[in-house]
Design goal:
single chain; alpha/beta; eight-stranded parallel β-barrel; 21% strand
Length: 237
Amino acid sequence: MKVFAHRGESAIYPENSQTAIQQCSRDGMDGIEIDLYQTVDDQFVVFHDRWMTRILGLNKRTVDLTASDLAQLNGKDDKPLPTLAWTLAALANSGLILNIELKNIHNIELFYRQLLEGCEQSQFDLNLIIISSFNHQYLADFAKLSSFIKLGLLLGTHPAGDDLLLPDFPIYSVHLDMDNISEVLIRRYQQLGVHIYVFTVDQEEEIDWLYEMNVDGIFANNPRQISNSALRQVALD
């Protein structure tokens, strides 16, 4: 069972910050999850919220940030907000899987080009990229551009009946909300051969249950806590 650092190592450092990302390493986790917005100046910035109020106390939408704003703005760790290019360069030699959750992207083709350019410049392995989103149209548009980059379908609901909400384009994984899953649902997705990742999990009881369910991965705010457990050691063997 793979363990992803949710918004970086966010239990210890400010979420989605340079520090939270830089502190991630293969000795404590398998991957890292970040959130991405496209700004008015077509920068791709790592941030979770639609507004900057909760995290930075600014009454400004993330999508309205300008290049000048980004040059002057620091995160809660007193470092510049991470960008897509910075993140790819920072993690290029880490061996970590990078799950990029698309929050608000108005030009998928531009994002795809910048992703390819960033991976080429930093020599980040594209095989270690997963693109996920609650906006399934983003994934549908991305699938038309690339047939080899992994796509993760984010679901915050427990589908009723026989409709598992799967799209008509290939996906690598389904990312399920811990609040809206069941053994029956997990088994049904497993029968279809898709990878199953669950968010956000930090409690030992839930971790044990998901390991028993044989899910492929979990997103955790405190991934090192999981990596130090006896359960994690079994999973690594």
